[in-house]
Amino acid sequence: MDHRLSPELEELRRTVEEFAHDVVAPKIGDYYERHEFPYEIVREMGRMGLFGLPFPEEYGGMGGDYLALGVALEELARVDSSVAITLEAGVSLGAMPIHLFGTEEQKRRWLPRLCSGEILGAFGLTEPDGGSDAGATRTTARRDPATGEWVINGTKCFITNSGTDITGLVTVTAVTGRKPDGRPEISAIIVPSGTPGFTVAAPYSKVGWNASDTRELSFADVRVPAENLLGEEGRGYAQFLRILDEGRIAIAALATGLAQGCVDESVTYAKERHAFGRPIGANQAIQFKIADMEMKAHTARLAWRDAASRLVAGEPFKKEAALAKLYSSTIAVDNARDATQIHGGYGFMNEYPVARMWRDSKILEIGEGTSEVQRMLIARELGLAG
Ligand SMILES: Cc1cc2nc3c(=O)[nH]c(=O)nc-3n(C[C@H](O)[C@H](O)[C@H](O)COP(=O)(O)OP(=O)(O)OC[C@H]3O[C@@H](n4cnc5c(N)ncnc54)[C@H](O)[C@@H]3O)c2cc1C
Fold it and tell me: I need a surface site. Which of 6, 180, 257, 273 has the fewest CB within 10 A?
């Protein structure tokens, strides 16, 4: 397998790299400090077609694939993770479920605007009492026999992109019945923003990703038409497992970008900063730290590209996606810690990008499946029953 980029993907990489440096880098620090969603930057990402990267042209997409999405996420996260996670969640969690499981009508209704970035989609799986154990969903959706509508009740927490001015929908998982063995039957249902009874809380105060949107959502007798069911009734659990498998590749690409951004910033700083009469980068202790950071970012890149290539080729990729996510998030945290150390006291100042990278790194070991969950998946793929 050749993990070098094709000429088209290299061109995409360069375009996004330029955008990240010219447009994102100069502005994002202020948005981050103000905990403000960067509408202007997101609009520009939409114009560039980034939200449509892996979707067919007939629905307004760019006709690319998961490799293309990963390349864009990596380049964005080299500079900033808030904009990268906004793209990741918009594409992998917001639009992808509709692309993979939607009816023709649902695709035509939602995908063009999701692909252009005119609206953002969100995916509501996690609940206050169930994150890793997502099968413990308590949100319910029952059919109203008189109208056929779904009536949804429950609460979702930590949902990315769910409360921006341009959020168009959230797909929620809900218990819609019981299987013969008593286990809950879970389905996925599209809830358009603004549906009566659907309340979006104020944004959380977060440790990182401060220019991205994360909210708690509540549903009190929320009614949506029968045709808002996404995919087959009772298949919601299987569907979200597929979405999360793919999403792990995207998070791995994002984590690789953050890890590489730490290298970029450290190399620059180690050349500029002088101590004891010479650049700190002249010290082997600093050089070795940066060499190890580069090694880790490079290896993480190979891992996510391998998983993405398998997905694109239609091969099994579950284990490789979990490996890539586990490894890249671990080394993103390592690199962020080391980059901060190399920056000394300035690394603790929010005006330096490495401070943002340090704050943004930890969530990578938690979101879209914790590191423990990745290890569980890998062990299961190795035939170790749990
Ligand atoms: C900023 C942010 C954005 C997010 N965006 C979204 C989103 O858009 N949509 C969405 O649905 N969710 C979202 N999430 C939720 C995220 O996916 C969950 O937080 C994550 O899956 C972990 O679930 P939890 O928080 O309930 O932790 P828990 O499941 O309660 O886990 C707590 C700890 O126990 C460990 N643990 C649990 N079970 C086991 C086990 N069997 N063996 C060993 N260890 C175990 C976990 O690894 C973890 O360390 C987001 C979270 C954050 C913080």
Answer: 180
